Amino acid sequence: IQCEINKTHLPPTGREVGIDLGLKTIATLSDNTKSDRENITKKYEKKLASAQRANKTRLIKTIHAKITNTRRDWAHKETTKIIENNDIIVVGDVNSLNLKKTNLAKSVSDAGWFQFKSLLAYKAIRFGGEYMEVKENFSTVTCSTCLNKTGPRGLSALGVREWTCSVCGSAHSRDVNAAKNILRFGHESLQGVQNGRCQKK
Fold first, then answer.
1. d(Cα 104, Cα 102) in Å, to the nearest integer?
2. What is the pTM for the complete model shown?
3. Residue 175: which of 45, 32, 17, 67 has the closest Cα?
4. Looking at the chain, which runs of residues are DSSP E strands?
5. What is the rounded end-to-end Cα distance, in angstroms, of the chain?
6. CA 29 to CA 95: how far, in whole Å?
7. What is the C-alpha separation between 36 and 25, in angstroms, rounded?
């Protein structure tokens, strides 16, 4: 269905934010705000398994719909708050497809990163904000203060949530630090676009 909608530009806030998407906390913002909810799939897991064993098709569909609607409602509310409070939103390009092939598949599906990013993108267009995705390579291991790669790395370090830069001594929350770097990557990308336009002129 195609339809026209009136664009309602929100008043500028002068604020911008980087967003690191994750599993333990679905969205961590560079201003230290965290958007999180309970694992909805896990909440209904036993009830769904019981219905499937009893082959109750109608109940199975109802539970699946409940999970989907609850997840969508939360995502709408959280993305609206982010759009209303920021003019520029930069998100890391985390890809769920590869992670869905691991033992984290259920958690990745429940997090709904694609839906979260899609809602941010279309709301930014509708309300006059700016949304962009950037490569998030090294965002978790790079100190957002001095830009040295001193953070914990490797699979064995995934459980390390707080760390201190060995170069400048800055203390970091792993996710907030990543979000700050993602915002910086966005600035660098915008600067590159602007420089390209100037060269073309």
1. 5
2. 0.85
3. 32
4. 16-21, 27-29, 34-35, 88-92, 130-134, 162-164, 171-173
5. 40
6. 18
7. 5
Give the position of tokens 């279309």: 122
Residues 160, 150: Cα–Cα separation, whole Å: 13
Q: Which residue type occupies 19?
A: I
Q: Which residues is 132 bridged to in the sheet?
A: 90
Nearest-10 crossing angle of helices 113-127, 57-85: 40
**Torsion of the alpha carbons at 187, 191, 192 and 193, rounded to the nearest 10:** 100
Please tell me the distance from the alpha carbon of residue 66 to that of residue 40, in angstroms, as a whole number: 9
**Cross-strand pairs, 130:** 88
Pair of tokens at residue 35:
């958007």
pLDDT tens over the chain, length 201 residues: 665 555 677 888 999 999 999 988 999 999 999 999 989 989 999 999 999 999 999 999 999 999 999 999 999 999 999 999 999 999 999 877 767 667 777 888 888 999 999 999 999 999 999 999 999 999 999 999 999 999 998 767 778 889 999 999 999 999 999 999 999 999 998 876 555 544 554
* Alpha carbon distance 9, 1 (integer Å): 24
Q: Give the contacts of 42 (CB within 8 A, at least 6 positions apart).
A: 106, 110
